[in-house]
Amino acid sequence: MAVTSTDVVVTDTAPAASRARFRFLRGGKTRTGLLILAFFVILAVAGPWLAPYDPDAMSDQLLQPPSADHWFGTTQTGQDVLSQILVGTRGVLLVGFLAGILATALSVLIGVSAGFLGGAADEILSMLSNIFLVIPGLPLIIIIASFVEDTGDMLIAAVIALTSWAWGARVLRAQTLSLRRRDYVEAARATGESTWRIILFEVMPNLTAVIASGFVGTVIFAVLSEITLAFIGVADISHWNWGTVLFWAQSNQALAQGAWWWFVPAGLCIALLGTALSLINFGIDEFVNPRLRTATGASRKVRMRVGFTPVARTAAPAEPGFTPVARAGATPSPGEPVPPGTPESPGTPSKEHSA
Amino acid sequence: MKYILQRLAFYAVTAWAAITINFLIPRLMPGDPVEALMSRYQGQLDTSAIASLKALFGLDEDQSVWSQYTDYWSHLLDGDLGLSFTFFPTPVGEVIAQSLPWTLALVGITTLISFLLGTGIGVYSGWRRGSWLDGLLPVTTFISAIPYFWLGLIAIAVFAVKWQVFPAAGGYDNSLVPAFDWPFISSALYHGVLPGVTIVLSAIAGWILGMRNMMVTVSSEDYVMVAQAKGLSERRVMFSYAARNAVLPNISGFALSLGFIVGGTLLVEMVFSYPGIGFQLFQAVGAKDYPLMQGVFLIITLSVLAANLLADMAYALLDPRTRKEA
To answer: Which of A71, A178, A189, B79 sits 20 to 30 Å CA-CA off A95?
Structure first.
C-alpha cells in the first residue's frame, strides 16, 4: 500500500483514461494477490513436468513424513503427495476459470439485459435470477453431479456455472438500472444507435470493474465447489486435483494415523489461492468505492472520527457511471458466492420486486 | 402488507420451481439410474422398492410426463418421499425427520453466533477505520478462504487425535439413548463444540467484512456528521445512527447466506459424521440412494426458503421504507 487515500484523490484528478481503468492493479493487496495467482498459474502449466514422481505410482515408502526425497511426505500406498498437488493444480485452475467465465457470461447476459430492457423482460429475468439465488447451490450441484455417470472437468465446470451466475446478474442489473438513464446513454439513443451498440459500447465499459469483481468471486466459489465435490467423491476421483488428494486422505484415515502432511498442503494451497483471489477482489472493490481503502502510513496514527475521512466524496469515480458500490470482496465460505453486503447503496431496501 | 404478500408470492413460486427442478433432474439426466440400481442391489430390492423407484424416475412408460408430475405432487403433499435404500424399508421422510433437528440446532446456533459476533466486530472495525483492527482483514480473508471441511479436518487432527479433548465424530455418546435428560444433552453439547467452533470460525470473516464495508460507507453520510455535530456521544452515533443503517444489507445478506451456510454445513457434518441431514446426504450419495438424496435436497431448499421468508419479515420490521414503499 504505497499510496494513501489522500494521495489517490490528488493524483486522480486528471488521470489518463486507460490508466484509470487499470488503476486497481496498483494497490499492494491486488499486487500480492496477482503474484500468488501467477505462482499457481505457473504451477498449473508446468506442474506435471515439475512433479518429481508419477502421482499414481506406488512405492514401498509408506506413509512417510516429509523428507528430502518426498517434500510433502507420502501416502498410505507410497505415493508422493507433492507430485499429486503439483499435477492437481491444473484441474483446479481450469475448472475454476472455466466456470468463472461461463457464469460471468451468463450473469452479464441476464443481468444487463434485465436492467437495460426493463419491462416484462426485466420481470422474468429478475425472477429467474432470484430463484437461482435462493435455491441452495451446493446440494443442487451434488445431486446433479451424482446423477451423471461420467463426470469430467468440463461438466463440473458447467454445472457450477449454472448454479452460480445469479448473484452477479443481480448486481449487474442494479448497476445497469442506474446507468441506463444517464445523459450520455440518452445522447447515444438520440443519435439513433442501436440498443445492442449502446449496451456494448456505452454501458458495458462502465460495468468493467463490477464484472471483474463478480468474475473473481465466482472463480473462488467454483474452485471451492470443485474441491468439495472431489472431496465428497462425487466428481471423478481418478483425476488429480487438491480435492482428490483430500478425498484419499480422508478415506484412508490419514487423520487417525496422524499423517498431517497428507491433508495440510492441499488445504493450505486452497486457502492461499482463495486469499489471492480475495485480495484481487479487494483491489477492485476499493477502486470502485475509494472509501473502503484502508488507511496506511501516517494517517494510521490519527484516530479517525467519522465525518473526517480523508477521502473527498468527489473523488469517487474517475469514470462517469460508477455509484460507489459497497460490496464485500471476500467469499465468506465455500459454497457461498454471496458476500453479505449488498450491491445497493446503504439502507436501500432490497429492490428485487419493487423496482 | 403488500410487500409481505409480494414476498410470499415470490417464495411460493420459488418453492414450486425447486420442487419441479427436483422432479426434472432424474428425468433429464442421461443414463438409466434404475438399471444401475437394480443390478447393484440384485435380489435385495423389495417389490415395493422397485415400485417406488419406478415412480421416482417415471419408468411407467404408459404414463405421460404430466401425469407423473401430478402423481409426484400428490405423493409430496401426502408427505410421501419414497423409501430410502440405505435404511430400507424406512421411508425417506422418517430418516430426514430424525436428522433434521441435529442440523437445525447446529446450524441455527452457530449461524446466529457468527452473524452477531461478526457484525459486532464489523461495526467496531468499520468505525475505527485505520486502527489496528484493519490488520484483522488479511487474517479473516485467509480464514474465510479455507474450506469448511478442511478446517474441520484440522480441528479433528489437533483436538481429537493429538490431544483428545473433544470427540472426533458423532452427535452424542453412543452408549446413551437419545432423551431429554441431562446426560444426553450435555453429551450432545460436548459433541457439538468442534463442529460448531469451526463453522463460526469460517463464517465470521464474511460478516466482519460486509459490516465493516457498510460502516465505512455509512460513516461519511451527512446524517452521521449531523449527529456528531449535535454532540451526541460517540456510542450513540456509532450504534443508533451509523450501525443501524449499515446493518440492513447485512440482514438481507444473512437471509441469502443461509442457503450457502447450509451447503457449507453439509460438509462439516460429513467430516464430523454428525447425524444431521448433511451426513445423510453424504451417505445417500455414496450409496446412490436417489430417493433419500432428493428428499434431503427438497428439505434443505424448503428450509432455506422458510428462513429467507423470516428474514424478509424482519427486514420489513426494521426498515420502515420497505413498508412505505409497498
So the answer is: A71
